[in-house]
């Protein structure tokens, strides 16, 4: 039987790869056979992930990159192509969550959300897609959030810029998918619910009230565990999803059902 999830010979680029879901996905790519490029602002944290990937026998490079800065992105993608000569998979994972409602946020806080969550995807994709078009092949996966379609009424966790920026990621994904399918490029988005990560461990996971409510309303009765997002990421990154285009797959243990 063909192994449609085999990524041998592929090069995967992961943004926001220094910790959490990004680091987990990078290691999953390596275990599936891909060489991996790690992008994040904190180069020192990337080296830890790089060492773990190299233990699998795959190649990895760690490259400091600010996805909100065009020159930083352009330089990073240029270096990747110099080293590997190809980019087959792009996981746009870098993201932030800024708390606050429209009546309390500053313009700077609002812009920060959109700069990272939306502009970051635009900039990295801008410099990767021309290469994918030349090769008539590419897999782009954008990490959105369940909060693109589900909001929280609690004042403790109101995040209007997060809701709207992640909804924008879904819209951008659909637009890119329709435009670039003819070049052999698939573009899809994933909407995780609550997973423990660097972003959530210091906020949502510290609130017993929030976790109690989340676990009660979630059919599985718990947040996602580390690694439980990897299967969906690998599916959308492999030939198993060759006819899947412009989709938004929610990985939430059933939270959005109830």
What does this structure look like?
It comes from Kineothrix alysoides. One of its GO terms (biological process) is bile acid metabolic process. This protein is of the alpha/beta class and about 260 residues long. It has one domain (about 10-250): NAD(P)-binding Rossmann-like Domain (Rossmann fold, 3-Layer(aba) Sandwich). Helices cover about 45% and strands about 15% of the residues. The chain contains 8 helices and 7 strands. Strands 3-2-1-4-5-6-7 form a 7-stranded parallel sheet, sandwiched between helices. α1 links the parallel β1 and β2 (about 35-40). The chain is globular, with a radius of gyration of 18 Å. About 45% of the residues are buried. The model has no long low-confidence stretch (mean pLDDT about 95).
State the gist of this model.
GO terms for molecular function: oxidoreductase activity. With 258 residues, the protein is an alpha/beta fold.
Rounded Rg: 18 Å
Q: What portion of residues is helical?
A: 40-55%
Read across the widest sheet, the strand sequence of neighbours is 3-2-1-4-5-6-7
CATH H level, superfamily name: NAD(P)-binding Rossmann-like Domain
For the sheet with most strands, the description reads: 7 strands, parallel
Globally, the shape reads globular
The total of beta strands comes to 7
Strand and helix order? EHEHEHEHEHEHHHE
- CATH fold description: Rossmann fold
The figure for the number of domains is 1
CATH architecture: 3-Layer(aba) Sandwich
Strand percentage lies at 5-15%
Instruction: Determine the mean pLDDT.
Output: 93
CATH class: Alpha Beta
**Tally of separate helices:** 8
Distance between the termini: 38 Å
């Amino acid at each position: 039987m063909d192994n449609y999830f085999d990524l041998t010979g592929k090069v995967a680029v992961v943004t926001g790869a220094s910790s959490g879901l990004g680091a987990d996905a990078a290691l999953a790519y390596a275990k599936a056979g891909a060489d991996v490029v790690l992008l994040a602002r904190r180069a020192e944290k990337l080296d830890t992930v790089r060492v773990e990937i190299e233990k699998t026998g795959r190649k990895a490079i760690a490259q400091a990159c600010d996805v909100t800065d065009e020159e930083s992105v352009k330089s990073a993608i240029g270096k990747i192509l110099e080293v590997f000569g190809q980019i087959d998979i792009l996981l746009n994972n870098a993201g932030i969550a800024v708390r606050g409602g429209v009546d309390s946020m500053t313009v700077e806080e609002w812009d920060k959300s959109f700069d990272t969550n939306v502009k970051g995807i635009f900039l990295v994709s801008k410099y990767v897609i021309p290469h994918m078009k030349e090769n008539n092949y590419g897999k782009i996966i954008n990490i959105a959030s369940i909060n693109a379609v589900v909001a929280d009424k609690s004042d403790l966790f109101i995040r209007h810029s997060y809701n709207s920026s992640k909804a924008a990621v879904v819209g951008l994904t659909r637009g890119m998918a329709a435009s670039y399918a003819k070049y052999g490029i698939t573009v899809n988005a994933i909407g995780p619910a609550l997973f423990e990560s660097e972003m959530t461990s210091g906020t949502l996971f510290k609130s017993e009230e929030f976790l109690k409510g989340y676990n009660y309303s979630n059919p599985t009765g718990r947040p996602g565990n580390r690694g439980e997002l990897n299967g969906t990421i690998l599916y959308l990154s492999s030939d198993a999803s060759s006819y899947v285009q412009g989709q938004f797959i929610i990985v939430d243990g059933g939270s959005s059902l109830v």
